[in-house]
Amino acid sequence: MNRRDFLEKSATAIIATQVGALGLMSSCSKADGKETPQSGSEVTPRSGGLKVRFLGTGAADWTSAPYKGEHRNFSSVLIDDQILIDYTSMAKSMLPAGCSPKVIFYTHSHADHFVPKDALDLGIVTVYVGMTWYATAKKRFEEAVKTGNYKMPTIIGVNTLSPQVVGGITFTPLPANHGTNIQGEQALIYLMEKGDARVLYATDTGGIMAVGAQYAGFDNHVSNKKALTGLIMEATMGIDYDEDFRIFTHSSVGTVLRTAHVLQKTGLYKPKNNEPVYLTHMARTLHAPQSELVNTIPSPLYPAYDGLEVEY
Fold first, then answer.
1. Backbone phi, psi, residue 141, to 5°
2. Spatial contact of 154 and 126, defined as CB atoms under 8 Å apart
3. Which of 17, 113, 115, 195 sits between 20 and 30 A of 64, alpha carbons compared?
4. pTM here?
């Protein structure tokens, strides 16, 4: 199966089985029906719900060559047509026509998420990275700027549990359970809040760390409980690979399923339109093809695919 057939078949399957998946065509040049000038870190708030477009849903072992008849880009999402969480050039083909996002939030320093030159090629002007590796990120961007006719973006270091408001969306970095090659780096996952939407984008991480869940209110141990309306979580390991060595810094389908069930049982996962829990960051060799996954992944989970759009 070629890439186009894969995407078309996946789109047909998800539209037929899930209410929350919106196969929308988007234009990054507009918001609220008007042209959207972007200058510096300015992002014009978009009307409506919180829109997520999956630019990539694969883990680090994916290459440009198809595997078992399909391909996944490295994990990356576009929020409200204007803001990126992670990005590499592998995902460029999934950007809507005319899209030129200027702001990016990074989860961590691994090369399947963080490539400064790729961000510069897009024209990124504002970069958010964890404070624990701010100096390394800044140096890497400075080195990339010297390789071409680029302008150095503004690099902003963020701490965990420190909300950042961009384009009318509150991005709160929460700690991830994930190791990198930079000593002392704390990888991040992001809680995104806009209107009634509270969506957690959790990749890469082995489960969800209690300190973040408690701060954000979706832990049953705290008094200030706040339910999630959306959950996007990595499942590097497939159904039959729970005991893979990557379990120390990644999640499996079983991990996400148990997480979803607990959140449902405690009333802390309340999707507005019956959206499933979307899986992303799926390892190339640890999952069946998408056409099989849609029939084997248990509810309330659903395997996301490159190009899928969801509005919360």
1. -70, -40
2. yes
3. 17
4. 0.88
Determine the residue type at 138.
K
* Assigned token pair, 86: 């992670």
pLDDT by residue (tens digit) across 172-181?
999 999 999 9
CA dihedral 168, 278, 285, 283 (to 10 degrees): 30
The residue behind tokens 């999707």 is 271
Q: How far apart are CA 312 and CA 301, in angstroms?
A: 16
Quick one: which of 75, 4, 14 has its CA closest to 283? Answer: 75
Q: Say yes or no to pLDDT of 31 above 90.
A: no
**DSSP calls for 87-156:** B-GGGGGGSPTT----EEE-S---TTTB-HHHHHHHT--EEEEEGGGHHHHHHHHHHHHTTTT--PPEEE
Token reading at 160: 């965990």
| 163 burial type by CB count under 10 A (0-12 exposed, 13-18 middle, 19+ buried) | exposed
Residue 70, strand partner residues: 67
Phi (first) and psi of residue 294, to 5 degrees: -60, -20
Phi and psi of 172, rounded to 5°?
A: -110, 115
**What is the rounded CA–CA span in Å between residue 130 and residue 156?**
8
Tell me, what amino acid is at 7? Answer: L
